[in-house]
Amino acid sequence: MVGVLYVETLIRADLEQVWRLTQDPAQHQRWDLRFTRIEYLPDTVPQRFRYAVTAFPGLTVSGTGVTAGQRVTADGSRTSALRFASADPLSPIQDGAGYWRYVPTEDGVRFLTGYHYRPRWCGADTVFRPLMGWATAWSFDRLRLWLEDGIEPETSLRWAVLDVGVRAAACVGLWRLAGLPLALVTAVGLALAPPSPVTPAARRCRRRPPDRLSRTAPAQLSTLELS
Asked: Quick one: which of 48, 86, 131, 174 is 20 to 30 A from 40 by CA?
């Protein structure tokens, strides 16, 4: 397995709300860019699930997993852990494991994740791993916008597509009017410009664990078995 991917955001919302939108598969699949469909299998303990990801029309990869949640700990925080795997030859991930941690603070809930996986093609992971980190962080900020500002995931996605389209159109317009050098400079400037407050942005999330506890998987992860 490669090193752990870590993402954290602070959500100014009630812990129960964060828990509900992340533990209910019907809600989870709405905000998490990494999943198109999540389905819990009935009467399984610990909870088993199937998932699918549509990378683009005509290409969907699927897999299975097992998850367990610990609702309350001594400090009021909660955790959930999971293992997952895919036998689909088109899936860039063979198997992996990770956790979510919910830490209540005076300012809201620190919602964080750490996970690792085994790539199916090591060479391709040079590109895929940064993409996975970005997708996780973008999705966490999408969830934050939903809980803090009431911007539903489908709406924030439309805003994001519009934002990218406007920036791209500006670059293309400058290329035609003033040439490629100015268009490239503008593209860099627009890429570095602050994101719209209604648009999810991966850059708003923390990407390195601030302490040892944050980067330590809960003990329950070691008890989960896929088979």
From this structure: 131
Collapsed DSSP state (helix, strand, coil) of residue 196: coil
Q: Which amino acid is at 163?
A: D
pLDDT digits over 108-155, tens only? 999 999 999 999 988 888 999 999 999 999 999 999 999 999 999 999
Shared domain check, 156 and 141: no
Residue with tokens 């601030």: 210
- The sign of the CA dihedral 65, 158, 92, 116 is negative
Sign of CA dihedral 202, 204, 209, 213: negative
Q: Are both 69 and 142 inside the same structural domain? A: yes
pLDDT tens, residue by residue, 9-38: 999 999 999 999 999 999 999 999 999 999
Predicted TM-score of the model (pTM): 0.91
Regarding whether 213 and 168 lie in a shared domain, the answer is no
Please check whether residues 108 and 211 belong to one and the same domain: yes
Q: Which helix (H) or strand (E) holds 60?
A: strand 59-70
Mean predicted lDDT score pLDDT of the chain: 91
User: What is the side-by-side order of every strand in the sheet holding 5-11?
Assistant: 5-11, 108-119, 93-105, 78-85, 59-70, 47-56, 37-40
Residues 190, 93: Cα–Cα separation, whole Å: 33
Are the beta carbons of 6 and 209 closer than 8 angstroms? yes
